[in-house]
Amino acid sequence: MEHWLSLVATENLTRNTLQARIVRRRDQLQLEQDATGQARQQQLLHIADRALAAAANIERQAEEFNAKYKAYALFTLNVTRVPYVP
Length: 86
Description:
Elements: H1 2-11, H2 15-28, H3 35-68
Helix pairs in contact: 1-3, 2-3
């Protein structure tokens, strides 16, 4: 799951692109007849949708914060989808 979520965040994948990658990966692992594999695929797509929605919400909140406190100009929030690695 972490692998797919990091791909969604860093590469700005759409749901369809992510689904294509998952299907390609599934075919490589020969999970097409495995019900568990298909359930996992649907779970990954659901998690990816939630992660994208959460990222969009964080970006929207940062924009609102910056607009609201623009007059004070003490600092602004910059949201990036590239993970911070110290």
